[in-house]
Amino acid sequence: MSITTEFFRHPMLTGAIAASSASLATAMTRGLGLEGAGSVVELGPGTGVFTSAVLSLLPSSASFTAIEINPRLASALRSRFPSVSVVCGSACSVGSLSVAPPDVVISGLPWTAMPSSRQQEILDSVCSVLSPRGCFTTFAYAHTAWTPPARHFARLLRSRFFVVERTPVVWRNLPPAYVYRAALPVSAGISRERAAAPAS
């Protein structure tokens, strides 16, 4: 199934006009500790480019849940990835999932296409379920970096995580994009001093 077809069929449900590249998928999954993760949640998997990259690293014993709002894409994901629990619904529902606190939440959501209130709602839901030393990773298109929605989202990330990193631009993607990696959610109640200390 083509993400481009779904964009034109349901533009309010599908935020990307082209599927993410393998290069972006590699950048999204690098350095997250997926090899040792026990629980992973993906938001907005689309056609499964990031899903496939996660599965290539994840232990077979780990739980993997994906939330996709587009029913056709959700159905295709279930067929393609039978080991993944695919939920058809809004990313805001991540807080109601009956899963262990995820070690990693990976997102392909179109943040700059959302109102600021929806950005905040989803990010707060992510922080409410993420394990205390878990990691949240997402991406943004480089050409939107200075738009108000993109700048608002960057501020939200930095207000909700002690650690936020941005990668160099991944040029081998259409459009070029960069990746955010955020760790140590403020809501977990870990002080900045403890957050800076290595895990024992």
Automatic annotation (TrEMBL):
Q: Give the matching InterPro entries.
A: Methyltransf_25, SAM-dependent_MTases_sf
Q: Does the keyword Methyltransferase apply?
A: yes
Task: Give GO terms: molecular function aspect only.
Answer: methyltransferase activity
Matches recorded under Pfam families: Methyltransf_25
Q: Where is the Methyltransferase domain?
A: 40-134
Q: Does the keyword Methyltransferase apply?
A: yes
Keywords of the record: Methyltransferase, Transferase
Q: Name one GO biological process term.
A: methylation
> Under which name does UniProt file this protein?
Methyltransferase domain-containing protein
Species source reads Amycolatopsis carbonis
Output the lineage of the source organism.
Answer: Bacteria, Bacillati, Actinomycetota, Actinomycetes, Pseudonocardiales
